[in-house]
Amino acid sequence: MLTFKPRGWRGKDAYEISGHVVDGSNGQVVYEIAGRWDDRLVARHEKEEYVLLWQNSPKPSPGTSPFNLTPFAITLNALPESLLSLLPKTDSRRRPDQRAFEVGLWEKANELKGVLEERQRGRRREKEANGEEHHEPRWFRKSVDGDSGERVWEPKRVGGGEVEYWVRREKGEWDDGVDDIFVEMPGEVEGRLRSVGEGM
């Protein structure tokens, strides 16, 4: 059982968590838990010493990280060569405008973004001219949640219920039904990515 303490108007109790673990067989408290969700959590078993359960990773010093991102957030768009071959052409980590922005080529990023947007508008006009009313998602389908009745997006499945995206990824089969939506990565962006260690 955990309690996230409400923040007081001075912010004194901001981020604080308290709680305990109860033995289901006898209802006795086994561990006391305390800490802050932005820093660390510790547990204590009866009269024993505190045990560190979790601690937040250290933050980069100001000015050393783009957009003050955490080390984890920075790795989310990392695209090593070993991963590149496994991804479909539509994976957002392949967006040349985004990649240019991440390596500090802002003017090139804006230029590429304009090209991508124009390509999107052109594809939309082409689909409308062919009588296609709307975009059909490639990897998901609309559904209704059986419990809540809300509209949800479920992954498309094949054969024995396997998720189609993962089946395709395993086989490296991306060409069927996957549009080439991005422009080619400019050499100057590739070069900058290589220099920051992504090896694209």
Strand content: 15-25%
Head-to-tail CA distance between termini: 46 Å
Q: What is the number of E strands?
A: 9
Helix content: 25-40%
| Unreliably modeled segments | none
Strand arrangement within the widest β-sheet reads: 1-2-3-4-5
Describe this protein's structure.
With 200 residues, the protein is α+β, with helices and mostly antiparallel strands. Among the domains are: 2-55, no CATH class; 136-175, no CATH class. The chain is 28% helix and 22% strand. The protein is built from six helices and nine strands. The protein has helices at 71-75, 81-84, 96-102, 106-129, 164-171, 187-195; strands at 2-4, 16-22, 29-36, 40-45, 50-55, 140-144, 151-155, 157-158, 162-163. The protein has a five-stranded antiparallel sheet with strand order 1-2-3-4-5, with no helix packed on it. Helix 3 runs antiparallel to helix 4. The longest helix is centred in the middle third of the chain and has 24 residues, at 106-129. It starts with a strand and ends in a 5-residue tail after the last helix. The relative contact order is 0.10. The mean pLDDT is 85.
Task: For this entry, give a set of tags.
about 200 residues, five-stranded antiparallel β-sheet, single chain, 9 strands, alpha+beta
Q: What's the gist of this structure?
A:
The chain has 200 residues and is an alpha+beta fold.
Tell me the layout of helices and strands.
Elements: E1 2-4, E2 16-22, E3 29-36, E4 40-45, E5 50-55, H1 71-75, H2 81-84, H3 96-102, H4 106-129, E6 140-144, E7 151-155, E8 157-158, E9 162-163, H5 164-171, H6 187-195
Antiparallel strand pairs: 1-2, 2-3, 3-4, 4-5, 6-7, 8-9
